[in-house]
Amino acid sequence: MTPGTTRHKRPTVGIIFVIISCLSLQFGAAFAVHLFPLFGPWLVTVLRLLLAAITVGAAVWIAGRWRAHRAGAQTAYMAVPAKTSDGFLGWSSRQWRAMLIFGVTLGLMNGFFYNALARIPLGLAVAVEFTGPLVLASILTRRKRDLVWVFCAAAGMAVLGFEAVHGQETDLLGVLYALIAGAFWALYIRSSASVGELVPGASGLAVAMAVGAICVVPEALLFPGPVALWSVTHDTQLVLFIIGTSLLASVVPYSSELAALRHLPEQVFSVLLSLEPVIAALAGWALLGQETGLMRWVAIILLITASIGITQTTGGSVPADETSDSYRRNEPPEHTSPLPLPE
C-alpha cells in the first residue's frame, strides 16, 4: 500500500482500528502471561505462532478459492497452485531464503518478548522493546538532529537502570530479554522489506509464522514448563486461553492495523502505535494487577517521546509488534505485517 491510498479517507475509522489493535494485543499478552507458569514462554510462543499460521493460511486459501470461483477459474486454480498469487510451492530459492530469515526473526522476536513478559511488567517490556526499532530508525536517518531522540531513549534506559539499583526492584534479565526482542524486531523490519518486494500475496505471512513456530521448538524443548501440553485436552479453559492468545495477539492486531492503514497516513499510524507502551502499562495494571511506579512511568514517557520524535523527523513510520506479541507493526511495528492479509 502506498501512502497515497490512505488520503481522503476516514481518519476516525483508522484510529478506531488502531485502538482495537492495541487493546487486542494487550488482552492477548494477558492471556499469554497466565499460560507462562504452566507451559513456559517458549512453548506458548510456539502455540501462538502455529495457531496463527493455521488461521491465516486457512483464510488465504479460502480467499483464493473464492476469488478463483468468482473469476470462473476454479479448476485452473486447483490444477496449477504454484502459479497463483498466493501459492508458495513455486517460490524461488531467493524468495524462500528471504522468507526463512523473516520467519526466524519473527519467531525469536516473539519468543524473547514472551520471556521478558514472564519477568517484567507488560508496559515496561513493550517500552524497552521499542528501543530496537528506534535505534534502527536513528541509524537509517543519518541526521544529527535525530541524536536528540537517541538521547531520550538512552535516558529512559538509564532511568530503568537507576531504578533497578535504588528503587523498585526490576528483573534485569527480563529487561535484557526485552532488549534482545527489540534487536530481533529491528531485524524483522529489515527482513520484512525484502519479503515485501520478493513474495507476492498473503501466503507469506502464514509461512513466516509457521517458520517462526518451528525455529523456537528447540527452546521450548530445552526450557519446558511444569505442565505437559497434552493436559489441555482435559481443560477447556486452557484451550480457550491458548486460542485467545493466538487470535488476540496475532490475527486481530494484524488485520486491524492493515485496515487502519487504509484510512490513515503511515506516519500518523506509527505515531499512534508509539503510544502503545502507555496502553500496555495501563493494561498490565487493569488485567494483571501490575504496578508501574513513578520511575518506570518516566522511562516509558522518555521512550515514547523518542519514538514519536524519530517518526516525525524521518517523515516515515517507526516500527512498533505482537505483534507483537508483540507482534506486528507497520514495518515499523511487529505488528503490521509486511504481507497483506486477505480482505
What's the tally of helices? 15
User: What is the CA-based Rg, rounded?
Assistant: 20 Å
Weakly predicted, low-confidence segments: 1-8, 76-86, 316-343
How much strand content do the residues show?
under 5%
**What kind of assembly state do the chains in view correspond to?**
single chain
Arithmetic mean pLDDT: 75
Q: Termini distance?
A: 13 Å
Strand segment count: 0
SSE string, helix = H, strand = E? HHHHHHHHHHHHHHH
Kindly state the percentage of residues in helix: over 70%
Shape summary: globular
Q: Structural class of the secondary structure composition? A: mainly alpha
Sheet of most strands = none
Structure description:
With 343 residues, the protein is mostly helical. The protein has one domain. 72% of the residues lie in helices and 0% in strands. The protein has 15 helices and no strands. Helix 4 runs antiparallel to helix 8 and helix 5 (122-129) crosses helix 8.
Which key phrases capture this entry?
343 residues, mainly alpha, 72% helix, disordered N terminus
Secondary-structure topology with pairs:
Elements: H1 11-39, H2 41-70, H3 74-79, H4 93-117, H5 122-129, H6 131-141, H7 147-166, H8 172-198, H9 203-215, H10 217-222, H11 236-261, H12 266-274, H13 276-288, H14 294-314, H15 323-326
Helix pairs in contact: 1-2, 1-11, 1-13, 2-4, 2-9, 2-11, 4-8, 4-9, 5-8, 5-13, 5-14, 6-7, 6-8, 6-14, 7-14, 12-14
Subcellular location: Membrane
Protein name: EamA domain-containing protein
Region (Disordered): 314-343
What's a quick, concise take on this entry?
The chain has 343 residues and is an all-alpha fold. The chain is built from 15 helices and no strands. Helix 2 packs across helix 11.
